[in-house]
Amino acid sequence: MFTDSFRNRKNGFETMGSSTDGGKNSRSSGNGAAFKIAALIIGVIIIAFLAFNSAYQIREQEEAVLITLGKAQAVTDPGLHFKIPFIQQVRKVNTTIQGFAIGYSTDSNETQEAESLMITSDYNFVNVDFFVEYRFSDPVKAVFASRDPVDILRNISQSCIRTVIGSYPVDDVLTTGKNEIQSAIKEMIIERLEEQDIGIQLVNITIQDSEPPTAEVMEAFKAVETAKQGKETALNNANKYRNEQIPQAQARADGIIKDAEAQKTERINEAAAQVARFNAMYEEYIKNPAVTKQRMFYETMEEVLPDLKVIIESPNGDLQTIYPLESFASFSADTQTDQTQSSSQTAAQSAGSTNE
Q: 97-213: CATH homologous superfamily?
């Protein structure tokens, strides 16, 4: 029977009624099928794992560093990219503008005196808060040039802030010098980052707040600021009054100068007229000195004593006659006329006798 069974199996047949050998064959075929299914599942998982690790995606605000056996290469094009699993590695870098606070907490907005408390050039303490904005400019250097470039930027920023704040007086830090201080700090940080060359770039740094460390000092500074504002107001009012008064004074000065020039011209013309009159009178005086002198005397007396009378004593000393000045002047004029006529007649008679 055993021989027949062996022969039948060899020829591809199975002997009916051999229950023990049939059970063993069934279990063997079942184990083989399960192994094949498990192997297939493991293969699918391995393929899926390799496919998943061979692709990566870069977004618009990102750049990647592809590391191949320790050699780094920047990948800047956004989209889907592929790599060799277990041989190539990818590290992504966010290239958008980011920031951090110095001197206060962005979550609770509470002051951190260890960072904010500083000393000025005039030995005053002040709390100053800053906000630093940065971006990664070189992804390869940002990944491999340093362990933590943001922490390096923070330390550089704090050092530059304290250096610049220490060179300004407290009034500039609290009031008018903030823009200048920000510019100086920014330039210093940029110079330090260029020396370090760690693939990070400073975008901007701004002063968020600056105030004295205690309430008493704060009140004192407020009083000083109020006094400064009062000073500015007084200066503005004084400048306004000056701007109003200067044109008025200039106008008055111009009027006085014009009046003086007019009086000068008038006096010059008057003097010129008097000189001309004097010259004309002098010419007449040369021609007839006695008559001219007498006429000048009468005209002067008429100007000096217009309402008085003149008393004239007779030549013999016995008789005195009182004449009004007008009559005296007219009498003198008539006498001069008679004397002139007598002189003319005498001259005519002398000329007639000579002709005879």
A: Band 7 domain (3.30.479.30)
